[in-house]
Design goal:
single chain, alpha/beta, 7-stranded mixed beta sheet, 10 helices, disordered C terminus
C-alpha cells in the first residue's frame, strides 16, 4: 500500500491538542482531489477550473462568482457571516464525506487523536517548546495507527504534508524526526521522503510558484474542515456560530457512530477501518517509560468518549436538507 499523509492540528482551550491525519492512497488521490475541486463550481458545470476563461460555461457564468468560489476553506474562520461561496463549498465537502461513507466509496481515510493535556506530566517533555514536543511524539503515533486501515504489510508513505499554520516548521526535530524514526523503528513502514512538506492552506498562494501544491492544499483544507466539525460535536465550549452548528449537525450521525460503535463493520456509514477518533491518555501519566508502554497498539491508554455534546438549536434546517 502506497499513500500520502495530510495533517493539521486543532487546539482546544489549552486542555487538548487535536491531531488529524488524512491518509490518501495514491491510487485514489486524483479522484479525491478532483472531487473536492469540482465542488467549487456552483453553476452548470461539473468541472471547476482555476482560470475563469477555461470554464466550459464561462460565457454564461460571471467572473466574480468564479473568483469567489476560488477561496480558502478554513474552519476557524468560517461563520454565519462568511461568503456564500465559503459556506456552500464547506457544506458540499461535508456532504461529500457523508455520501462517500453511505455509498462505501472508500475515498476518505482519516484518524483524529485528541491529547488530554490534563493527564500528561508536561515536565517529561522538556523545559522548552513543551506543546511542540508533545505534538512531535504523538504525531508519529497517529501515523503508526494507519496500520488499522492498511494492515501489517509494507506501507509506503511517499510524502507527509502538514499545514504550516502553527510553529511546527520551526521545531528543531519535527520536520525530519517523524519520518526518520518511522523508518528506523517500524519494519512495516517506509517513508520515502522523510522531510515533512509544509503547505499553506490558501492554495492561491501557489498559483505563481508551485502549481502542484495547489492540489495538495485542497487536502489540507479538507482535513482542517473534518477536524473542526468533528471537534464541535465532542467539545462543549467551542463556537456556537449558527453556520458552524449546521456543519456539526451534518457530521453528527457519523461522529456518533465513531464514538459509540467504533468497531462496527456492519454500519451503513462504512467507517470501520477507514475513519477513527481517539483520546489519550485515559489515566494520569507521570513517567516517560510508562508513556512508551501506553502508546503501544491495543493498549488501554487510548480511550473513547461515548457521546457527542448537545448542539444548540440551529435555524438553518435539518440534516436531510443537505443529504438530498
Amino acid at each position: 500500500m502506497k499513500y500520502e499523509v495530510f495533517a493539521d492540528d486543532f487546539y482546544i482551550d489549552k486542555k487538548y491538542i487535536g491531531i488529524g491525519c488524512l491518509f490518501v492512497p495514491e491510487s485514489k488521490k486524483l479522484e479525491l482531489v478532483n472531487s473536492l475541486i469540482n465542488m467549487r463550481c456552483m453553476g452548470k458545470s461539473d468541472i471547476f477550473t482555476w482560470n475563469f476563461k477555461d470554464c466550459p460555461f464561462h460565457t454564461s457564468c460571471r467572473e466574480d462568482y468564479h473568483r469567489n468560489n476560488n477561496c480558502e476553506i478554513h474552519y476557524r474562520r468560517l461563520s454565519n457571516s462568511s461568503s456564500h461561496s465559503k459556506q456552500n463549498i464547506s457544506k458540499e465537502w461535508i456532504k461529500f464525506l457523508i455520501n462517500n461513507n453511505l455509498n462505501n466509496k472508500g475515498l476518505v481515510y482519516f484518524k483524529i487523536l485528541y491529547i488530554n493535556l490534563s493527564n500528561l506530566d508536561k515536565t517529561v517533555f522538556g523545559e522548552e517548546g513543551i506543546h511542540e514536543n508533545i505534538y512531535n511524539r504523538f504525531f508519529r503515533t497517529l501515523i503508526k495507527g494507519s496500520r488499522f486501515f492498511f494492515g501489517n504489510g509494507l506501507k509506503e508513505i511517499s510524502r507527509i504534508y502538514h499545514d504550516n499554520g502553527e510553529n511546527h516548521e520551526n521545531h528543531p526535530y519535527f520536520p525530519w524526526h517523524v519520518g526518520s524514526r518511522l523508518n528506523m523503528d517500524e519494519e512495516d513502514f517506509n517513508v520515502i521522503n522523510e522531510e515533512i512538506q509544509f503547505v499553506d492552506s490558501d492554495h492561491k498562494s501557489y498559483f505563481d510558484r508551485n502549481e502542484k501544491l495547489v492540489y495538495e492544499s485542497q487536502l489540507i483544507q479538507f482535513i482542517d474542515l473534518i477536524m473542526g466539525t468533528v471537534s464541535r460535536n465532542i467539545f462543549e465550549k467551542l463556537s456556537n456560530d449558527s453556520f458552524k452548528i449546521s456543519l456539526a449537525e451534518m457530521m453528527n450521525p457519523l461522529v456518533e457512530r465513531l464514538l459509540k460503535s467504533p468497531n462496527n463493520p456492519y454500519s451503513r456509514y462504512n467507517y470501520y477501518q477507514k475513519q477513527s477518533v481517539d483520546f489519550f491518555p485515559k489515566k494520569k501519566v507521570q513517567h516517560l517509560s510508562l508513556l512508551g508502554e501506553l502508546v503501544e497498539e491495543k493498549c488501554t491508554g487510548f480511550y473513547k468518549v461515548k457521546k457527542t455534546v448537545k448542539l444548540p438549536r440551529c435555524t438553518q434546517g435539518p440534516l436531510d436538507k443537505w443529504l438530498k
